[in-house]
Amino acid sequence: MTGMVKLVVAALAGAALMAPLAARAQEQKLSGTVTIWSWDVAAKALEAVVPKFNEKYPDVTVKIEDVGNQPTYDRGLAGCAAGGTGMPDIYTVENQESEVFWARFPECFRDVKAMLGPDADALLGKFPAFKLAELTVGEKVYAMPWDSGPIVLFYRRDMFEKAGVDVATIETWDDFVEAGKKIVAANEGAKLVSTNGDTTWFRMLANQTGCAMFDPEAQNVTISQPACVQALEGVGKVAKAGLFLQANWGETLQAINADKLAASIYGGWYEGSLRGAAPQQSGKWGIALMPAFEKGGSRASNLGGSALAIPTASQNPEAALAFLRFAVGTPEGQIIQLKASGLVPTLPEAIQDPYVKEPQPFWGNQPIWQTVLGTLDKIKPWRGTQYFAEADNSFIPIFAEFMAGNLEASAALTQAADEISGATGLPVKE
């Protein structure tokens, strides 16, 4: 080996050794404050991540403000309209509402994909397609996927047993309705599930059937398509059987606490809320897959879930990105949040964590997270689009008429399609 070659090899070896050191030095250089707007259990989940994050970045102070769900959305719209004034370093946005921001204020948030640099495709490519669909505009990705809401059936073991119902026999929505009649009859004063009058139930079943309010390009109204009619008819079967408790969020938790509700079909993130509302019912609850529309059909859907975006006006974007990389982009960060608040991971690697396989005492020692996370790769992508708010507001009163038995599913959705078309200016797909 010539002297020159030896020098080059030595230089390359030295550079290779120095690269990790340089990276660690860069990590240590990050400092200052990162402010995050979020709400409720999501805010608590992020707080749980901070101690581990600070082991790696001791000079970064993370301030998490529990602003509240609706106020976070409203303040975000106001801040973006004002050119970013008053925005935090990290902003929480629900997936179904996110496209409102990207469409109205495309300059308000940073392109996370560009910020990640060479690592972008490797990291973002790990997330399920349904979580990225609403965060992506062309080549830009405006936020990092955070939690998800895989739908499952939460059920009271004792109330099902009292009615002689084995949850394993509930495979379809027809099975669910027939079992529900028995459960309500056997548990005096109780209902099977609750609804607060919004369109949640329709959206859960619509995602399951592959229906959406708009087509993937957000060019046509599709809420009156056959898959949507099938979804609404499924909700109607539960309503006509008298299985619904009409109650808002707080009233539903009170009913659970008072043994007046035998089940809930909701996103996996509801686990923490239910467990927190009725700790004395430990051991009485279980989790199963949501029913399908036919035997062997899809038993996977998603409701809710959020993403974390970095506003363009952030005062500390590098530290904000470092926090996102750890909290959202690593199994460790996501499992910390799962343990703390029941916030459901989106990163598929997290399902390999030993904690996911552990029996959970509140749930009758069932390893519930295997069931919940096991549906992630089966969930169909669903876009709220920039027109979600207009569409949902148009549909709510029509949905209420349907639930009251005043409209059939097909007629209700035909009317909804016309109303949504009028509100958005988009044509109805025939």
What's a quick, concise take on this entry?
This protein is α/β, with parallel strands linked by helices and 430 residues long. The chain is built from 18 helices and twelve strands. It is 47% helix and 12% strand.
List the helices and strands and how they pair.
Elements: H1 3-29, E1 32-38, H2 40-56, E2 60-66, H3 69-81, E3 90-94, H4 95-104, H5 112-116, H6 120-124, H7 129-132, E4 136-137, E5 140-141, E6 144-145, E7 151-156, H8 157-162, H9 173-186, E8 193-195, H10 200-209, H11 226-240, E9 244-246, H12 249-257, E10 263-267, H13 270-277, E11 285-289, E12 306-309, H14 317-327, H15 331-341, H16 368-373, H17 388-403, H18 409-424
Tell me about this structure:
With 430 residues, the protein is of the alpha/beta class. The protein folds into two domains: 31-147 and 304-352, 3-Layer(aba) Sandwich (D-Maltodextrin-Binding Protein, domain 2); 151-301 and 369-424, 3-Layer(aba) Sandwich (D-Maltodextrin-Binding Protein, domain 2), CATH 3.40.190.10. 47% of the residues lie in helices and 12% in strands. The chain is built from 18 helices and twelve strands. The strands form four sheets. A five-stranded mixed sheet has the order 2-1-3-12-6. Helix 2 packs across helix 15, helix 10 (200-209) packs across helix 11 and helix 17 packs antiparallel against helix 18. The radius of gyration is 24 Å and the shape is globular. The N and C termini lie far apart (74 Å).
Low-confidence stretches: 1-26
Helix content: 40-55%
Query: What is the approximate shape?
Result: globular
Looking at the overall shape, the CATH architecture of the largest domain is 3-Layer(aba) Sandwich
- Judged by helices, strands and strand pairing, the structural class is alpha/beta
Radius of gyration: 24 Å
Treating each run of at least 4 consecutive H or I residues as one helix, how many helices?
18
Which strand order does the major sheet show?
2-1-3-12-6
Q: In CATH, what is the class of the largest domain?
A: Alpha Beta
Number of domains: 2
